Amino acid sequence: MKQIALVVGATGITGSNLAEELLAQHWDTYGLARNPASLPKGVRAVRADLFDVDQLRQALQEVYPTHVFINTWVRRDTEAENVRDNASMLRNLFDVLAEKHSVEHVALVTGLKHYLGPFEAYVKEGALPETPLREEQPRLDLPNFYYAQEDEVYAAAKRDGFSWSVHRPHTVIGRAVGNLMNLGTTLAVYASICRQTGRKFIWPGSEAQWNGLSDVTDASILAKQLIWASTTPEAKNSAYNIVNGDVFRWKWLWPRIAAWFGVAYEGYSGAIRPLKVEMQHDHETWRKIASEHGLSSEKLDALASPWHTDLDLGRPIEVMTDMKNSRIKGFSEFQSTEDSFLNLFERLREEKIIP
């Protein structure tokens, strides 16, 4: 039977890379977004706001997806608001899709905050979790919009009879512009500013992250796992961590990134030095760099998300995730982390996003 994908949040870092992979595997692919102007070529646009049920129903009137991939969320001022609004978006979507009776599988992308806590309580309350982080670790006793999203999936699956999978990447590396969780592009922009101004490429994070073992998730390998879990019978109705498959230390990778950009670097030196502070006065600098090199965007905020990079690199523990669950069931994809970064930097340069 024909496989028809609806990628919800198709313009973001995970959604856009997933859409490209689906097209490469010859799926009919629809991309739902409030502003679908930047969808990958070949994706059929669905313009809708998940908070507007009538608009959503109209936008999906002729769309009968067999597989739904949810790669979207909204951030509010408090976690209580995050829980309310992120749950509401998915509930609206499932209520509209239930009328079609076409959905066979729903795959939800969440992340490491499942184990580390929400933004406002991020690894601050209670004992730090033991690494490597495993899917069977229980939920934290804290409000968390990831849990709310999962619960909406579980409830709709029980009501409507589709299978599900949950995917927990972290520190996603891939091409996207304007994404809230965009560490790779943020570091590329920061390094480009350092080269232009003669500043050192300063490590912004914690000692634990600098010295400890880490892993990250390339957006392309996440896309492959999403499709694998959605089409492999024994993989359905389970949650999966997803990372590249290798481990590294930032004190090894940071100098290599600096070398690619041709800048001097400085590692951990006794205190966290947030990138948000380091880059707070760089808006005009970036505008000049973009103008001089004919780059695609002169707006620093459209490319970089220092606040979220600070969250990733400021964790007080080393972060590794266990992938046994999917490995046992046959998922064997691997991606070199150094290649994830360097390939991204090459693409950003080719597309005139960085000089």
TrEMBL record:
Under the heading InterPro entries, the entry gives:
NAD(P)-bd_dom_sf, PRISE-like_Rossmann-fold
Q: Which CDD domains match?
A: 5beta-POR_like_SDR_a
Instruction: Give the source's domain of life in one word.
Output: Bacteria
Q: Where is the PRISE-like Rossmann-fold domain?
A: 66-355
Alphabetized PANTHER family for the sequence: 3-OXO-DELTA(4,5)-STEROID 5-BETA-REDUCTASE
Name listed for the protein in its UniProt record = SDR family oxidoreductase
Please report the organism this UniProt entry assigns to the protein: Sphingobacterium bambusae
Q: What are the leading ranks of the lineage?
A: Bacteria, Pseudomonadati, Bacteroidota, Sphingobacteriia, Sphingobacteriales
